[in-house]
Design brief:
This protein has 14 helices and no strands. The protein is an all-alpha fold and 315 residues long.
């Protein structure tokens, strides 16, 4: 899914208003070029989240999928934190970590998994394509950074393309799954923004790691209840999907994503996600056998053009 405590970049990283919480030692910053590459890797990892969820749902209930993916990711994250003897975050960072946990560890996975019970991955991917705009807006409110007018115009054009694509696919009648997906956008944008902010003060893997550990008591209890209440039929698809969600999307994807946001800025990194719905459409065809909508190539070109514009603007 972070005073200017923003990770906004100009030629390098150039926002210097002091944090209201006081002075601190920031995490070593990646160069803008490396940061962009890390953000792209995050987008690639996230683009497989919906196909992975669809596979996991073939053999598990939605609550089982959400709780188990978090528990498995927390085991890896907690192990890494212990092996490297990472100190507990400062008290002033825990509120932000809680937002990350609520947004990207619990909220977004749960809402999108419930939506995918009745929605195709291709439709869900396009609706969630609005995430870059919601993240940029959340970042502007949270950090006080004001991107340029050109940035907002390009972002809105990209959003309009995504909305038009979604409406065309749904027949103009948003349903329960769409409402769940829109709610997922809001909580994920908050988690992304706060995670991007925190990644300036600690490595990205520690941000998501502590968020996973923070909610571990909840997810362990939730996993136990879900396994007792929902049917479980382990297949190659369901296990593979769950493992990707836990280690690919929930941990690796978030690590490189937060690091990338810290280097190139929350609002610019968020616009790279305009490409995520199109990548997910490709995966939905290759992995799930869904039919690619005829409008996808035109939408892809329009979205990529918007990304090019947003990456050239200065906040």
């Amino acid at each position: 899914m972070r005073a200017n405590d923003s990770a906004t970049a100009t030629a390098t990283i150039a926002v210097s208003t002091p944090d209201p919480a006081g002075p601190q030692t920031p995490a070593p910053a990646a160069t803008p070029a490396r940061g962009a590459l890390l953000a792209v890797l995050g987008v690639a990892a996230f683009s497989l989240t919906f196909p992975g969820t669809a596979w996991a749902l073939e053999g598990m209930g939605p609550w089982t999928v959400v709780m188990l993916r978090s528990v498995l990711a927390a085991v890896v994250a907690g192990g890494a934190l212990a092996v490297f003897r990472v100190r507990l975050p400062e008290r002033r960072h825990w509120a932000g970590i809680a937002v990350v946990a609520g947004g990207v560890v619990l909220g977004f996975p749960l809402l999108t998994t419930l939506a995918l019970e009745t929605s195709t991955t291709s439709h869900a991917a396009v609706v969630v394509g609005l995430l870059p705009l919601t993240t940029a807006a959340c970042s502007a409110v949270r950090t006080g950074v004001r991107p340029s007018r050109t940035f907002w115009i390009a972002s809105l054009v990209g959003a309009v393309v995504v909305i038009g694509f979604a409406v065309q696919q749904s027949g103009g009648a948003p349903g329960r799954s769409d409402l769940l997906l829109f709610a997922a956008l809001l909580v994920c944008a908050a988690g992304y923004t706060e995670g991007g902010r925190l990644a300036r003060h600690m490595p990205g893997w520690q941000v998501i790691g502590w968020a996973l550990v923070l909610v571990l008591p909840v997810t362990v209890a939730g996993a136990a209840l879900a396994l007792a209440a929902e049917p479980l039929h382990l297949t190659v698809h369901s296990v593979s999907g769950l493992l990707w969600l836990a280690f690919g999307s929930q941990f690796f994807g978030m690590v490189v994503w937060y690091r990338g946001m810290a280097a190139i800025g929350i609002h610019k990194a968020s616009q790279l996600q305009l490409a995520q719905p199109l990548l997910t459409l490709v995966w939905s065809v290759l992995l799930l056998g869904e039919r690619l909508p005829p409008a996808a190539p035109a939408a892809a070109l329009a979205v990529l053009a918007c990304i090019a514009v947003t990456q050239r603007t200065r906040g």
